[in-house]
Amino acid sequence: MNLLAQATGSGRTLTFTLFLLMVAATLVITVWARRHTRDATDFHSGGRGFKPWQNGFAIASDYMSAASFLGIAGTIALFGYDGFLYSIGFLVAWLVALLLVAELLRNSGRFTMADVLSFRMRQRPVRTAAAISTMSVSIFYLLAQMVGAGALIALLLGIKEGQTFLGMNADVAANVGIVLVGLLMIVYVALGGMKGTTWVQIVQACVLLGGAALLAIMVLVEYNFNLSNLLGSAADASGAGSAFLEPGLRYGTEVPGDAIATMWSKLDLLSLGLALVLGTAGLPHILIRFYTVPDSKAARKSVNWGIGLIGTFYLLTLVLGFGAAAMVGAEAITAQNPAGNTAAPQLAEVAGEGLGGSATGSIMLAIIASAAFAAILSTVAGLVIASSSSLAHDLYNSVIRRGTATDREEVIFAKVAAIGVGAIAIVLALFAQSLNVAFLVALAFAVAASANLPTLLLSLFWKRFNTAGAVAGIYGGLIAAIGLVIFSPVVSSTPNSLLGEGVDIAWFPMSNPGLVSIPLGLICAVVGTLMSSESQPQRFATLQVRALTGAGSERAVEH
Amino acid sequence: MATTPTRDGPPPDVAEHEIAALHDDPRFVDLKRRLFRFIVPATIAFLAWFLLYVVLSGYARDFMGTVLFGNINIALVFGLLQFISTFGIAWAYSRYAAREVDPYAQELHDEIHYGENAQ
């Protein structure tokens, strides 16, 4: 039952082989895409020629990260129902993207989120703010994924304390994992651009969904497809009984005898829910995906594909999480990884063994390990292309060169930016390894919900909105979200904090800033607008007609 | 603009003022109304339903823990209903947009790019 003891010899070789196969396939795609990437539209938006189903798979791949695969399965395995609650926020959020953002963004923008934000504003201040916000969200998200990848490599290769594999001990293997993931994402983006990244993501979505579906079916077979029995076994094994199937073990926990702590804890749950549901439609790497299809109808269809795939995936993680609780058990999971991140791979091994002996166990472990790497690689690649596009298109071309850079210059800068962002992410991840950075995903969502979404919606729907409002809204939301987290228990005052127990600057009682920072971002945007008299009714009219009818929108390129 | 635009290939370019001119056209106002008639109530509804679910998860745990049958409780059923309502709203919106929005948007798009008499 112990992953470390089992994942040796042939199992390790198999994991390695499958992983190398997937990497080889994605590199072939990248080399192919490089030959078909000629101009800026190819690099930033993949030529806008993707079919809705293709973009839907890529959207799902961007979104299904280590946090949503290993993280949610692990949270369900250890805390039961609350992990499910998290995934529901992640899913419902897509309705904001579908109803309010995807089509209008596709029609009015070109390459980046800032295209829409700056449409009727002064270019330089708005694009600078949008680029800073894009970079913040992307770097937070990247760090969480890459630190996770490092820990995972050591665990999946089954390297114990004091053991070595190919001459590496666990710490070296984690470093190698981070560097490897970093180099791969740089290669995918710098060589393949959006075309290569999208196809790589499509392949990786299939690996991830296929692996998760196979494992979920194996769990369900074990319980004769009776969900109630599965839940019952999970609740019994957890030791928490029926509370395991109810909300409250992880989020919004009751603090006995302390009404105020309980109140904050429950408001923290609301705050998390708000950031999850409003954050998705403000994530830059999700937004730029809507530009890869020919028109707004295709953008709508691709979101529908995404919703279907992501929803199915979260239903699978529900089975995997409760399956791990029932079949692996909390004790074995926390022994491997206190946060529960290895619950899914451990379940794969146990379920495989149950069906066909230890060889099947090793095969299933190898499949799920590859699926986990697919989840990480596809998400980090999406984040790198979002940041390099924003740096090249917004900061370099529009702000520094005032729009005079040629297509070729912009693409070269974007490639250099991809290498730069990747290198920075690798170095930061190597330093952040020993820290508890799981909160960074929630922080990325909070920044997206506080800084990006309000300004995006006001740009599209509020006539009076102007440069001062957009700039105030972005910086206000960004500073509020990051600032409140710095002064929260996430950073100091508890044993699990980033800085540990010794430092205490935590005057803000909630780990999730959304409940305060989202309204604050909105207020900044409104007040900023009203304090400036700038108004461009003609540009607003153009933006709205363009957004709703697609007139004048960017077309697919034909080569 | 090209003198005799054709429908093959990308549509001809248009000047910004030609696009902006449509903003006060009654047909554009109608298009906006058609879109908002769905997205505004739908957004309010799913956000309210999701927040209700989160609030119940935080403050009405006895209710959420009510067992319906076997090991299935209200919390699980409400969670699964969030999935179903998300799929349902996405489906309903796509149907609505295809019937009530897209044809009108296309008509205005074509008029801007190909001129009044283009059919």
TrEMBL record, chain A:
<feature type="transmembrane region" description="Helical">
    <location>
        <begin position="172"/>
        <end position="191"/>
    </location>
</feature>
<keyword id="KW-1133">Transmembrane helix</keyword>
<dbReference type="GO" id="GO:0015123">
    <property type="term" value="F:acetate transmembrane transporter activity"/>
</dbReference>
<dbReference type="InterPro" id="IPR050277">
    <property type="entry name" value="Sodium:Solute_Symporter"/>
</dbReference>
<feature type="transmembrane region" description="Helical">
    <location>
        <begin position="198"/>
        <end position="221"/>
    </location>
</feature>
<feature type="transmembrane region" description="Helical">
    <location>
        <begin position="269"/>
        <end position="291"/>
    </location>
</feature>
<feature type="transmembrane region" description="Helical">
    <location>
        <begin position="126"/>
        <end position="157"/>
    </location>
</feature>
<feature type="transmembrane region" description="Helical">
    <location>
        <begin position="412"/>
        <end position="432"/>
    </location>
</feature>
<feature type="transmembrane region" description="Helical">
    <location>
        <begin position="438"/>
        <end position="462"/>
    </location>
</feature>
<feature type="transmembrane region" description="Helical">
    <location>
        <begin position="55"/>
        <end position="78"/>
    </location>
</feature>
<keyword id="KW-0812">Transmembrane</keyword>
<keyword id="KW-1003">Cell membrane</keyword>
<dbReference type="GO" id="GO:0006847">
    <property type="term" value="P:plasma membrane acetate transport"/>
</dbReference>
<keyword id="KW-0813">Transport</keyword>
<keyword id="KW-0472">Membrane</keyword>
<feature type="transmembrane region" description="Helical">
    <location>
        <begin position="511"/>
        <end position="531"/>
    </location>
</feature>
<keyword id="KW-0769">Symport</keyword>
<protein>
    <submittedName>
        <fullName>Cation acetate symporter</fullName>
    </submittedName>
</protein>
<feature type="transmembrane region" description="Helical">
    <location>
        <begin position="363"/>
        <end position="391"/>
    </location>
</feature>
<dbReference type="GO" id="GO:0005886">
    <property type="term" value="C:plasma membrane"/>
</dbReference>
<dbReference type="GO" id="GO:0015293">
    <property type="term" value="F:symporter activity"/>
</dbReference>
<feature type="transmembrane region" description="Helical">
    <location>
        <begin position="84"/>
        <end position="105"/>
    </location>
</feature>
From TrEMBL, chain B:
<protein>
    <submittedName>
        <fullName>DUF485 domain-containing protein</fullName>
    </submittedName>
</protein>
<feature type="transmembrane region" description="Helical">
    <location>
        <begin position="68"/>
        <end position="93"/>
    </location>
</feature>
<keyword id="KW-1133">Transmembrane helix</keyword>
<dbReference type="Pfam" id="PF04341">
    <property type="entry name" value="DUF485"/>
</dbReference>
<keyword id="KW-0812">Transmembrane</keyword>
<feature type="transmembrane region" description="Helical">
    <location>
        <begin position="35"/>
        <end position="56"/>
    </location>
</feature>
<keyword id="KW-0472">Membrane</keyword>
<dbReference type="InterPro" id="IPR007436">
    <property type="entry name" value="DUF485"/>
</dbReference>
